[in-house]
Every structure is written in structure tokens, then in C-alpha cells.
Design brief:
Shape: globular
Distance between the termini: 46 Å
Number of helices: 1
Number of strands: 7
Strand content: 25-35%
Strand order of the largest sheet: 1-2-3-4
Largest sheet: 4 strands, antiparallel
Helix content: 10-25%
Length: 169
Amino acid sequence: MKARVACFLLTLLASVGAAAAADWLQWRGPLNTGMAVGDAPLRWSDSTNIKWKASIPGKGHSTPLIIGNRIFLTTAVPTGRSSDVGPNRSRAGGGADAGLEHRFEVLALDRDTGKVAWQRTAAVATPHEGYHRTYGSFASNSPATDGKRLFAVFGSRGLYAYNLNGTPL
């Protein structure tokens, strides 16, 4: 009897592990190593070993999350408006795009096609600080998930939560 229970539990754990390996629920991936499970192509180009391409507005450096058939990511899109910084005021922090208004976006892409399943504007704000011109973005934080909800942090612009269908929580 104990052997049957142990066998059942091992089978259950193996199937849960296999399902979890297909998802990318955290910054460093399913095994917390920064590497996907499985074999990667040895060669790729704009037309070889590429399933699809998607244009993402704005600039973001977050690690995408993968849950089932959805890929979730964040981006910051400049609106073109800048704050009124008079001669007696300065932008704190300096850096790229300080004082330029941005839309802080959360996107879900279809994993099979790359098409946008939903896109939500978490906030529209004018950051007073900038970011590193080469290595930064106002959307550098990776989204987080508990497998049921998606959380996106945009620094001092706030923490936003959505269900996996894009409804704000």
C-alpha cells in the first residue's frame, strides 16, 4: 500500500514538475537558473528557427513571464509631453527621459502567434528621475505572478495587479 502511494506521489510530482517547466513564472525561470528547459536551436537568424516576431512599443528590460499560452511583459512608452521645468527648478536624478511623460504598460502576448492578447495602461506619469541611457528603462522591473494574478511594479509610479485576463484587481 505504501509503495502504491509513493508511486502515485512520484508520478504526480513528475507531472506537476513537467507542467511547471513549460511556464516561466519568475525572473530566473522555471529552475531559477536563467535557462529554459529543453534544447535550444544552435543557429537562428531573422528567418531561421524563429516562430514569430512582435513589435513592442516603448522600452523595457523586464524578463517576460510565461503562464500557459500567455507571455506577460512590461514597457514604458514616451507620450512626447515633457514637464514644465523652469529656470528655478531642476529635474532630480537626471538621466535619460527625466521629465518626459510615459505610459506604463502591461502586455499579454499569445505564446503561439505573438499577437497582443491584451494591453493595459497601468499609469501615465512624468518621472522626475531618469534611467541609464544604455542599460535602463522605466519598465526594468520584471512582472511577478502567483500563477493566478500578475503584478507589475513601475517604481514610484506604483504597484499594479491584474488577473491573467487583464482585469485590474
